[in-house]
Amino acid sequence: NVKLPVIINTWPFVDANKQAVKTLSNGGTVLDAIEQGCTVCEVEQCDGSVGYGGSPDENGETTLDAMIMDGDTHDVGSVGCLRNVKSAISVARSVMEHTSQTLLVGSLATDFAREMGFTVEDLSTNKSKLIWNEWRDKNCQPNFWNPDTVSPDPREFCGPYHNKSSSFDSHTEKRVKLEKHNHDTIGMIIVDANGRIACGTTTNGLNHKIPGRVGDSPIVGAGCYVEKGVGGAAATGDGDIMMRFLPSYRVVQSMKSGMSPTDAVKEALDHIASYYPSFNGALIGVNVNGDYGGGGHGFSPFPATVYNPTLDNSTVIDY
Ligand code: SD4
User: Fold this and answer.
1) What is the ipTM of this complex?
2) What are the tens digits of pLDDT across the range 131-141?
3) Which residue owns the Cα nearest ligand 1 atom 9?
4) What is the rounded radius of gyration, in angstroms, for the C-alpha atoms of the chain?
5) Phi and psi angles of residue 176, each rounded to the nearest 5 degrees, phi first
6) Does 185 qualify as catalytic in the annotation?
7) Ligand 1 contact, 217 CB (< 6 A)
8) 167, pLDDT greater than 60
9) Does residue 206's CB lie within 6 angstroms of at least one atom of ligand 1?
10) Is 244 one of the annotated binding-site residues?
11) Keywords assigned by UniProt (predicted)?
């Protein structure tokens, strides 16, 4: 099949794609290629949205979400709100390969990573401190917890927005607008020449998130999903909306019933849009024949990066 292997990832993260191609051609497995490809983005801090030093939460801390899934065995490892460890996708792989559990979170995921030999370090950078300071000084929201209270100093009310008050929606809206261009998780799917499939995601999530927030990226069927004999899908965008629909799972099930990847992606995005017409999100899908597709809602165009043997190189395609 001249269309295999196929390596596809969200956004124009070409270096990550190239690394995955290289890993596969050097004899690595689909899991090795996913891990090493996604690691490139963690190291390069792709778009500031992957890896350390991006998307500081309301306390100024960067935390990471990541997952990896093996189509052959249906094994998954993932981490949510991982603190103080840079290589989230590798920690996720360790969860998959060294435990019978699936998802570890927060400081306790850090403890696991430390036991597995990962370096524990501060994920802040000068840039993330600057982003946080600017937010605190300029964009800090008024006190939505108690909207009747107006403080002379807005900084007093920059704490977590624990309460979903009536004003919460406008808060969310503003946040979505602010962060619209700051949603660049890498999600990658690979089908190799033998039909082996794997997927992975890694991200630092959402700027100014409430501390403790976990997005869609480490959630099976949301961030990504693969099924043996069928294919895989991965998501990027507003995870707080998207995870409510398990869109990657939905794309794979649609492909299983014969839909093309592009149609399956469109169907899943349209379904979300029927509830949330203004959500921002995108999906990619690939089937075991090597057909691939993608699409975005609110991101237009939505670029993805693809390699297969009919393409000379890792190529950015606008959907
Ligand atoms: C999240 N879905 O944490 C991620 C962010 C993202 O492209 O995809 N950015 O909500």
Assistant:
1) 0.97
2) 888 777 765 55
3) 183
4) 19
5) -60, -40
6) yes
7) yes
8) no
9) yes
10) no
11) Autocatalytic cleavage, Hydrolase, Protease, Signal
Q: 26 C-alpha to center of ligand 1: Å?
A: 31
| The token pair that represents 171 in the structure block | 């808060």
CA atoms in the 13 A half-sphere facing the CB of 252:
27
Cα–Cα distance for residue pair 20/160, rounded to 1 Å: 39
Q: Shortest CA distance to 127 belongs to which of 207, 16, 209, 37? A: 207
Share of the chain above pLDDT 70, in %: 86
Q: Which residues contact 261 (CB under 8 A, 6 or more apart)?
A: 231, 233, 251, 255, 284, 285, 286, 287, 291, 292, 293, 294
| 183 C-beta closer than 6 A to ligand 1 | yes
SS3 296: strand
Query: Cα-flanking dihedrals φ and ψ of residue 304, to 5°?
Result: -130, 160
SS3 241: helix
CA contacts within 13 A on the Cβ side of 80: 16
Whole-angstrom Cα distance, residue 197 to residue 33? Answer: 11
Handedness of CA 272, 314, 49, 121 (dihedral sign): positive
Per-residue pLDDT reduced to its tens digit, 2-20: 999 999 999 999 999 999 9
Is residue 229 part of an annotated ligand binding site?
A: no
Cβ neighbours for 193, distance < 8 A, ≥ 6 positions apart:
1, 4, 5
pTM for this model (two decimals): 0.89
| 122 marked ligand binding residue | no
- What is the residue type of 171? H
